[in-house]
Amino acid sequence: MKKTLLLIIGIAGMAFTACRHPKQLARNTFPATDTSKLAAHRDTTSAEERNAFIENMLKGIRNNNINFNTFSGRMKLAFENESKSHNNLTATIRMKKDSIIWVSVAAPIIDEVMRAVITPDSLKLYNRMDKQVFLRKMSDAEDLLNIPFDFKTLQDLLIGNPVYLTDSVFGLVKTPAVISFSCENPKFTSLFNVFADDYGLQQSKVMDKDSLNPNRRSCELTYGDYANVAGRKFPTVRRIFVEEKSVTKIALDFTRYDFDVPLSFPFNTPASYKRM
Predict the structure, then answer these.
(1) What does DSSP assign to residue 224?
(2) Angle at the Cα of 17 (from 71 to 214), degrees rounded to 5?
(3) CA distance 249 to 240
(4) Distances (CA, A) of 6 to 31, 139, 266
(5) Which of 134, 138, 144, 162 would disulfide-bridge 125, Cβ 3.0–4.6 Å?
(6) Per residue in 70-89, pLDDT tens?
(7) Other residues' Cβ atoms within 10 Å of the Cβ of residue 27
(8) Average model confidence (pLDDT) for the chain?
(9) Each residue's pLDDT tens digit, 160-205
């Protein structure tokens, strides 16, 4: 239970909740762009030109990073794994950069079912359905999931910035519409598709390096329906596809998004709830 809880918080910033009318999420909700089917240009550039292109591309991607002091958003949420399927949920997210992430999830009729507060050091969550309170160190996420996961990674994922992007680029493929490349990490290989015209994120995927591991983990993220908010390119639609021994699918569709507005982060633990 503890590992499942932290997985969902780590990947989507929220925990699974109850829903009376589950609906299966189709696999094609999580498309994977296959650049091998696109007309790639033969790369005749020199190593120096190639390095200059990569440097300029990385600069363009990072220039697209969404900067903010505070963020408030509301989204439609759907979640599915091999044993559970939830839809018709809504989630409200409030963030103060590098400081706190506040999440509230509500279901139809019964209203709020879960609330969480995440800081760089701690994770607090209460589940109204089961009347339980979870108190954890943020470092538990890395220990339990065996991934270099931290507050900043979750913050970037929720706001729409690339995660696990490094300067160690290889496998570059350029097409008129999409640029595809991979990055090296100590434990992972990261793959990215960015739009060729503005370096906006289209997709990213993180995989264990050991391709022979039968429990090889991967996480694919798709970004879409960008909105221009005060000069920020904000992806209002996200699709997350996590695969290890089983498959987890998460759909996030933002219906409201506000930057740099005053926010509060209330979290009052009911005294009667059981600590887990």
Answers:
(1) E
(2) 95
(3) 6
(4) 25, 11, 21
(5) 134
(6) 999 999 988 887 777 777 88
(7) 11
(8) 80
(9) 999 889 999 999 999 999 999 999 887 788 999 999 999 999 999 9
With b for 16 or more beta-carbon neighbours within 10 A and e for fewer, the 205-225 pattern comes to bbbbeeeeeeeebbbbbbbee
**What phi and psi, each to the nearest 5 degrees, are found at residue 214?**
-65, -20
User: What is the number of other CB atoms lying within 10 angstroms of the CB of residue 80?
Assistant: 21
d(CA 252, CA 11): 11
Q: Is 255 left (phi over 0), alpha (psi -120 to 50) or beta?
A: alpha
Give 150-197 as a DSSP string. Answer: -HHHHHHHHHT--SS--S-EEEEEE-SSEEEEEEE-SSEEEEEEEETT
Amino acid residing at 244:
E
Q: Which residues pair with 191 in a beta bridge?
A: 182, 205
3-state class (DSSP) for residue 207: strand
Average pLDDT of span 244-261: 89
The pTM of the full predicted model, rounded to 2 decimals, is 0.82
Q: Report the candidate in 80, 83, 88 with the shortest Cα–Cα distance to residue 113.
A: 88
How many CB atoms are located within 10 Å of the residue 197 CB?
11
Q: Which residues of 110-145 are buried (b: 16+ CB within 10 A; e: fewer)?
A: eeebbbbbbbeeebebbbbeeeebbebebebbbebb
